[in-house]
């Protein structure tokens, strides 16, 4: 895991008022930050974006009681995460996206 990366997104997660949802946001960030050393983050005041190389993986945007997840480009998969089921679905989708991007990069050398 690369804690310096995930620390960049902590202030964003602190915007979430619900403690369990805030913890899910932080776990999501930690998961993606640590999955591959080539994953990079772009943070702004309102969102964090994850990339593998130049390929977009996902965007997280915290709100009061939830966080919004957009995975992939057009067509993107989107969800508002506020439950463990929503979190599990988003993790499943982002891992699928990571594997697609990883496999594509590997096949192109």
Summarize the helices and strands and which ones pair or pack.
Blueprint: H1 3-7, H2 10-13, H3 19-35, E1 39-43, E2 48-52, E3 55-62, E4 67-71, E5 77-81, H4 84-107
Antiparallel strand pairs: 1-2, 2-3, 3-4, 4-5
Description:
- A 5-stranded antiparallel sheet has the order 1-2-3-4-5, with helices on one face.
- Strand 4 and strand 5 form a beta hairpin.
- With 109 residues, it is of the alpha+beta class.
- The radius of gyration is 13 Å and the shape is globular.
- It has 4 helices and 5 strands.
- Number of helical elements: 4
- Rg over CA atoms: 13 Å
Q: What is the number of beta strands? A: 5
Query: Share of helix among residues?
Result: 40-55%
Taking the alpha carbons of the first and last residues, their distance comes to 25 Å
If you average the pLDDT, what whole number results? 89
Label the overall shape: globular
Instruction: List SSEs in N-to-C order.
Output: HHHEEEEEH
Largest sheet: 5 strands, antiparallel
Share of β-strand residues: 25-35%
Kindly report the spatial arrangement of strands forming the biggest sheet.
1-2-3-4-5
- Low-pLDDT residue spans: none
SSE-based structural type: alpha+beta
């Amino acid at each position: 895991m690369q804690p310096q990366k995930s620390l960049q997104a902590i202030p964003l997660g602190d915007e979430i008022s619900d403690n369990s949802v805030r913890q899910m946001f932080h776990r999501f960030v930690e998961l993606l930050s640590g999955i591959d050393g080539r994953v990079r983050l772009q943070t702004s005041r309102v969102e964090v974006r994850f990339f593998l190389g130049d390929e977009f993986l996902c965007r997280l945007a915290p709100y009061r009681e939830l966080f919004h997840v957009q995975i992939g480009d057009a067509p993107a998969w989107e969800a508002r995460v506020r439950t463990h089921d929503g979190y599990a679905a988003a993790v499943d989708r982002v891992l699928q996206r990571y594997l697609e991007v990883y496999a594509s990069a590997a096949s192109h050398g």
